[in-house]
Design brief:
Blueprint lengths: L10 E4 L10 E8 L4 E4 L4 E6 L2 E3 L2 E3 L2 E6 L2 E2 L3 E4 L6 E2 L1 E5 L5 E5 L8
Antiparallel strand pairs: 1-2, 1-9, 2-3, 3-8, 4-7, 5-6, 9-10, 11-12
The protein binds zinc ion.
Length: 111
């Protein structure tokens, strides 16, 4: 099983996919390890027309709702907080056996 190294809250850069999303950076707001898909803030934004609806006494106003669609995890790379580049990741274990993600470009520990 492919283990994903991308986590919720990470900043990632889109490296392939839709032209308008390429090179865009954003925070990961959802990771779906089963389908290997991630949802990134501001990436793959879709628009949905919403009719006025009543739900549990609340009225949702009509209009256009924008929401992010998920993209495949292979289309994004983690942006290293140290070198600020989209980086390949390695895993290092410390003396306690805890795994840390490491940027392969600059060698710094990410978490
Ligand atoms: Zn780095």
């Amino acid at each position: 099983m492919l283990k994903t190294k991308i986590r919720k809250g990470d900043t990632v850069e889109v490296i392939s996919g839709r032209r308008q999303d390429k090179g865009r950076r954003g925070e990961v707001i959802r990771v779906d390890p089963k389908s290997h898909r991630v949802t990134v803030q501001g990436v793959n934004v879709r628009k949905k027309h919403q009719r006025q609806v009543q739900t549990q006494g609340r009225t949702m106003s009509p209009g256009i709702i924008e929401f992010e669609g998920s993209i495949h995890i292979s289309n994004v790379m983690l942006v290293c907080p140290s070198c600020n580049k989209p980086s390949r990741l390695g895993v290092q274990r410390d003396e306690d056996g805890a795994a840390h993600r490491v940027c392969k470009a600059c060698g710094s520990q990410i978490d």
